[in-house]
Design goal:
This protein has about 375 residues and is α+β, with helices and mostly antiparallel strands. Helices cover about 30% and strands about 15% of the residues. The chain contains nine helices and 13 strands. Helix 2 packs across helix 4. The longest helix has 26 residues.
Length: about 375
């Protein structure tokens, strides 16, 4: 089978000290140490069905009674004439005195122990795309099943607890340059670009941990980024900015690759799903996508699927389990291209002048010089 999508993502985390979520929930939230990481609480403050937004999770506070107090929606207790305290939001909530001092207070949100109620994390999507199931004959014809404009299911995570409230889906411009996507070389280029940026970020992180300044770390990352990458396939300056912005976030490799392809117009977003939960409360959302090698592939898939009975009632699968297969030759021949609007793609072709390619090559040379002569 010929696959017009990328090869399997290899999930390589680069969270560093800033992603101490499981080992120390308090660190990720800015609290001083692991002693405050044993009890946590969460609340849906904006009534959107989850507790994935900033301020909706917290490390609980110790009290003189040995109980724990959730700081979310914490209010001061009220004393009656006899000096007895009661919680103004309900008598069922206990008035507690924090070990740090102050008057008694209460909260409507309950604390729970991470040791007995661990945070449940969903792994990144593991969609290899369409895998080859046949060789090529002497004339170059595929001997297996053919899929045209196939993609793969991937996810990126918006700002939330697991990402240390960094938006890993953030649009950083058209980093990956488009192409027809009809050749093996084009597929290899997309893989090299995605892996190259992540390799650059790892190199920058290693340099920073070794004592390099931010500028020196950026140079190390730029050097690693540009080695072996076709300069016409990537906007180098955007890639370096993207790499440095993501460096100390809680974004992993799939977040980064999805964000690059998404901002380059090659992904169809299907919806969101929960990727991290605590006691059944969602703490982190993810956005599921089908990403393709080209914008053209994404456009034809989006407008072609509704024309075919095979996709009726299930155009894209679900956000958590996307269906990103390509068209069979018979399905592709059945498409009515007079009903497919390619104006978005044509406008990109017109904008890609020879001067843009020269600028890209200049960026690569300048980035290399900066890397070898910091």
């Amino acid at each position: 089978m010929i696959d017009y999508a990328n090869s399997r993502y290899r999930h390589l985390n680069l969270r560093g000290a800033v992603l101490a979520l499981v080992l120390g929930f308090g660190v990720a939230l800015g609290f001083p140490g692991a002693a405050y990481a044993q009890q946590i609480c969460a609340a849906d403050l904006n009534n959107n069905g989850d507790a994935a937004d900033e301020g909706e999770q917290a490390s609980c506070l110790s009290t003189t009674s040995g109980a724990w107090l959730c700081p979310i929606q914490e209010v001061a207790c009220v004393a009656d004439t006899g000096g007895q305290y009661s919680c103004p939001i309900g008598p069922q909530y206990a008035c507690l005195v924090k070990t740090t001092g102050g008057p008694p207070s209460c909260s409507p949100n309950q604390c729970a122990d991470l040791a007995s109620n661990p945070i449940v994390e969903e792994p990144p999507m593991d969609d290899p795309g369409t895998e080859p199931n046949g060789g090529v004959d002497a004339d170059g014809n595929c001997m297996g099943t053919i899929e045209i404009f196939s993609g793969r299911g991937v996810r990126c995570r918006p700002a939330g607890l697991s990402t240390t409230f960094s938006n890993c889906c953030k649009d950083k411009g058209k980093i990956v340059k488009d192409g027809m996507g009809s050749s093996i070389g084009s597929i290899g280029t997309k893989i090299a670009v995605a892996k190259g940026v992540f390799t650059g970020m790892k190199a920058a992180y290693v340099a920073f941990k070794a004592g390099a300044t931010a500028s020196q770390a950026a140079s190390a990352g730029a050097h690693a980024l540009i080695v072996g990458i076709d300069p016409t396939s990537i906007a180098v300056s955007l890639a370096i900015n993207f790499m440095m912005e993501f460096l100390f976030s809680g974004c992993d490799q799939q977040d980064m690759e999805t964000a690059m392809l998404r901002s380059s117009g090659m992904c169809h977003e299907i919806g969101s799903y929960c990727t991290s939960s605590f006691l059944g409360i969602c703490l982190q959302k993810a956005r599921g996508h089908c990403c393709f090698n080209t914008k053209l592939g994404r456009i034809i898939q989006e407008q072609g699927r509704p024309q075919l009975k095979a996709f009726n009632g299930n155009l894209w699968g679900t956000a958590k389990n996307p269906m990103c297969r390509g068209f069979t030759p018979e399905e592709f021949q059945a498409l009515d291209f007079s009903k497919i609007d390619l104006s978005e793609y044509y406008s990109d072709i017109e904008a890609r002048a020879q001067s843009n390619i020269q600028i890209d090559m200049g960026e690569r040379v300048n980035a290399y010089l900066k890397a070898v002569n910091p």
